[in-house]
Specification:
heterodimer; A: mainly alpha; B: 14-stranded parallel sheet; 13-stranded parallel sheet; 4 helices
Chain lengths: 260, 411
């Protein structure tokens, strides 16, 4: 597995797109900090960007890489190597190289602007970890989609749709249903639905840091317990772990059964 | 003739000055308790109390005396009654540690109780474990300065207020620290008074509470982590300047509540990380100038019946919601404020943005109607609907616009 991971990792690290991705984050970080010159405000803006962007990049990269390296994969399958090893290796290759681009791309500008001298280091780490998790989750999901569809165009379409669903449509549906059922007690529902979407989940973790004062404005007892104590924080991390492991397991399962 | 008159006057003054004796209270002095000394003292005397603990059960002061506590002088109420009852003009109480007043559900026991006086001074005392700290009724021109009032209140109905003034005039409350009480400072029917440079924190209800009080000012105070910062209710001509309202969190919590306020001024205050920065309910002709509202849940929430309020040159920085309205009506003006969410441009370089700013978002309207939707805060979908509402307002007051938003933060 390490060998396959090394191959796909070095393959991706040399690809143009990784550098473009890295360059984008470098530029974003420097421009944000140049305009604000304030680390904490830069982090707030970055949170909005990361929650939407890392899933998208992860999805597109995952699908693209899988289809592109299909011949290489088939070649590997002919060798006496376990299938789960092949796919896990490739999955880790994509995810880790993307996460590395994220960490380096954002880390350098923030280091230059004095991250260690400010009290924001914890928030910044939180941001990077959330971004990393989102990358892992969405790469796994998109590889699953690619495994399901051998038609490239179809697979690509579904992957984009999946991203759109989690990033935008899901929240729209939630908002709509909350407004329709406004007369019913909704706080359990509100927390539950945000746990069922990894993007919402990371967004809430970030809210817990940033907008805690607004979240405490609502009177629900469950909300109070969830947001007022560390319970919310711990639960969110746990759920993100589950969100990462489930698509990975699904991917391995499909890969084992699929007839190439 | 004239000269003789002056000489006699001088001798009278000197005589009365000489007569005002100093009486010491300590274990082996002439008096070993304060009550005895107060009883034997004549008007204008000074009583100096040495270090040590003295039981003081509802001690009445009915002559103008100066009571000075040396460091370590403790007046202990023994959990029974008022500790000191001051019923005379011009009494000075200074430097004591006053503890353990009675607690009651029918009587307002206090560490220092003042009734029907003028010119009383309560200075540099430390009051602890009492029901009310300093309770002043029907008095004029008192000075309450440099005191520390602390308690361990948990519930509103089982605690008294730190400094409580009722039916007073021309009062000065300065440099006090109040924590762990119900209200830090409470003023009811108090006119022409100043509350300056106090620090009220961790109180169960409000840091400062005004009821039916007119022509007052509170300046340079800090209100931190109280149930709610300051509540100003049913009062007119109140000036609120240079105060800090910090970290007042909770479901019904705010930095500043203005209920039925007319002709007030809210100037150069700082509101930071409150659930609600300013909650305006039924207030009219109040000017908000030069305030900084930073990282609050809601910077300003405006409820019904608010007319002719002016918000000018304030900083709105990083709040989850800048302004929230519960109706489509608007009679208030927002002009020349700095909004950190503003994304317009300034082509003519006059320092004001060329595109008007709409501080009320559609999402704040939705959250008003369905509070649980708050979990969708900062989601991409919410940004999208906010944007569409910005382009063509349908649910938010469409005349609520800042026509000249500032491009740069006010210092």
């Amino acid at each position: 597995m390490i060998k396959i991971f090394k191959y796909s990792f070095s393959d991706l690290m040399r690809s143009r797109w990784s550098f473009i991705y890295l360059g984008f984050y470098l530029l974003l970080g420097f421009v944000l900090l140049f305009l604000n010159n304030d680390l904490s405000k830069g982090i707030i803006t970055l949170m909005n960007v990361i929650v939407v962007l890392t899933p998208m990049i992860g999805t597109i990269f995952g699908v693209m890489y899988f289809y592109n390296s299909r011949e290489f994969t088939e070649l590997l399958l002919a060798q006496p190597v376990k299938r789960s090893v092949i796919f896990l290796g490739q999955f880790l290759g994509i995810s880790i190289s993307l996460t590395l681009s994220l960490i380096i791309g954002l880390g350098i500008p923030f280091l230059v602007y004095g991250l260690f001298r400010s009290g924001e280091i914890f928030n910044f780490l939180l941001l990077l970890i959330a971004g990393g998790f989102l990358t892992f989750i969405f790469v796994a999901l998109s590889v699953c989609i690619a495994l399901f569809n051998s038609n490239k165009i179809k697979g690509f379409g579904y992957a984009i749709l999946m991203w759109l669903f989690f990033a935008v449509i899901y929240d729209g549906l939630v908002l709509l249903s909350m407004m329709v059922f406004a007369d019913y007690p909704l706080d359990d529902f509100a927390l539950l639905v945000s746990f069922l979407n990894p993007i919402d989940l990371s967004r809430i973790m970030i809210l817990l840091k940033l907008d805690i004062s607004a979240l405490l404005g609502y009177t629900g007892a469950l909300f109070q317990r969830f947001f007022g104590t560390s319970l919310g924080f711990v639960m969110s991390w746990l759920m993100l772990l589950i969100w990462t492991s489930v698509p990975v397991l699904l991917m391995v399962r499909i890969a084992n059964k699929k007839n190439f | 003739m004239k000269a003789r008159f002056y000489i006699s006057l001088l001798s009278l003054i000197l005589g009365s000055w000489a007569m005002s004796a100093v009486r010491n209270v300590c274990r082996d002095c002439d008096y070993d308790n304060l009550a005895q000394a107060v009883q034997h003292a004549s008007s204008g005397d000074t009583i100096v109390v040495a270090a040590g603990s003295y039981i003081s059960n509802g001690l009445e002061v009915i002559k103008p005396l100066v009571l000075l506590g040396k460091p370590g002088a403790i007046l202990d109420g023994d959990n029974q009654n008022y500790v000191l009852r001051i019923l005379s003009d011009s009494v000075v109480v200074s430097g004591f540690s006053i503890i353990n007043s009675g607690k009651s559900y029918t009587k307002d026991y206090a560490a220092v109780y003042v009734h029907g006086t003028s010119g009383v001074q309560i200075l540099d005392n430390k009051i602890d474990n009492s029901f009310f700290g300093i309770l002043v009724e029907k008095s004029k021109g008192a000075v309450i300065k440099g005191n520390t009032v602390s308690g361990t209140a948990k519930q509103e109905n089982q605690a008294g207020n730190g400094v409580h003034l009722w039916h007073c005039d021309h009062m000065q409350i300065g440099d006090n620290e109040v924590f762990g009480m119900r209200d830090g400072i409470y003023l009811e029917f108090v006119n022409h008074s100043d509350v300056i440079n106090n620090y009220a924190h961790n109180n169960v209800r409000y840091g400062l509470h005004f009821m039916f009080s007119n022509h007052d000012a509170y300046v340079d105070n800090t209100f931190e982590s109280n149930g709610a910062g300051v509540a100003v209710m049913f009062s007119k001509w109140i000036r609120m300047e240079h105060n800090h309202f910090i970290d007042n969190w909770g479901t019904a919590s705010y930095g500043l509540l203005l209920k039925e306020i007319y002709d007030g001024e809210v100037l150069n205050n700082l509101f930071q990380q409150n659930t609600l920065g300013i909650y305006v309910d039924g207030s009219t002709r109040v000017n908000y100038i030069g305030n900084t509202l930073r990282q609050n849940g809601w910077a300003i929430k405006v409820s019904g019946g608010c007319y002719a309020n002016a918000f000018t040159a304030n900083n709105f920085i990083g709040n989850s919601f800048d302004i929230s309205y519960n109706s489509k009506m608007n009679d208030n003006t927002f002009n020349g404020n700095f909004w950190s969410d503003y994304s317009g441009y300034d082509l003519d370089k006059d320092g004001n943005g060329d595109v008007p700013y709409r501080p009320v978002k559609l999402f704040s309207y939705i959250v008003n109607r369905t509070p649980e939707t708050i979990v969708l805060l900062r989601s991409l979908f919410v940004d999208l609907i906010n944007f569409s509402e910005k382009v063509s307002p349908a649910f938010t007051p469409d005349e609520l616009v800042d026509h000249s938003p500032a491009m740069k933060k006010f210092q």
